[in-house]
């Protein structure tokens, strides 16, 4: 069910960020190598608690860096912009990143977009709005892939999904519209930092189940 809701939210977000002209295909397309790696990660059995501790630590660290970064992110973005990376050189970064995040999302069972946004922002590869657009496409494609795989082995209860989908459709549309058209980059960085921290808390709760 969560994959279906991810598709709804990511679709509305991608729609708004596309309209605002924030999607960079140079960054986004190579990241979609994540799709087959998500399948591989999903079939891999590893010690769950150890992985959760590692990934929770990574999420909290990313959240802290986003919230405390100040002008450092702008400086990194300016350095990357001046380098004017060609598509082949940029792909040397984004292809391995997509493969890694696809594998992690498959192993842990959470969307890779929660990792992608802070990485793109903190490394200076993308400004917050471009990062959000890339994450939306990333989440959409991986969630569609996961839902197809899930529907092959299990029955999907669309009657239960539909009412929730209408609610998240409205919330996702309004939120992404604010992010794409209204909010400053600084406010968006703050929001991403909070969301990443919440994802870390949510993942940490698995340790006590």
The helical percent reads: over 70%
Strand content: under 5%
Large-scale geometry: globular
Mean pLDDT: 83
Q: What structural class is derived from the secondary structure elements?
A: mainly alpha
Largest sheet features: none
Number of alpha- plus pi-helical segments: 10
**N/C terminus separation:** 21 Å
How many discrete structural domains?
1
Order of helices and strands: HHHHHHHHHH
**How many distinct beta strands?**
0
- The low-confidence runs, each spanning 5 or more residues with pLDDT under 50, are none
Write up what this structure looks like.
The protein has 209 residues and is an all-alpha fold. It has one domain. Helix content is 82%, strand content 0%. It contains ten helices and no strands. The chain has helices at 2-19, 25-31, 34-42, 48-68, 72-83, 87-108, 113-123, 128-153, 158-182, 185-204. Helix 1 runs parallel beside helix 9 (158-182). The protein is globular, with a radius of gyration of 17 Å.
